[in-house]
Amino acid sequence: MNKVILKGRMVDTPQSAILSQNSEVLNFTLAVSRKHRKNGESDTDFIRCKAWNGTANLIEKYFSQGDSIIIVGELRNGKYTASGGEDKYYTYVNVDEIDFAEKKRQ
Description:
The chain is mainly beta. Helices cover 9% and strands 60% of the residues. The protein is globular.
């Protein structure tokens, strides 16, 4: 089973792109806090996320930098070729569902 549920804040304004066949992808980064078990201090992980089509539209419409969001999805791996010609790999969450984590700030 590959299922991820995260609550965090949008690091920046999501960036959308229209791909072939009118498919939209939205890339964003989620800042997720975690506490250290021993000393109780917190640390932050920055998680890459991708949302598609209808989910992408909802995020773009209702969320912006600093907003808290809950996402549900699955881990995926991606690959690209760096300018030096070497292959680079990364992990991201492919977002299937979203929910509001708090009321919209005034």
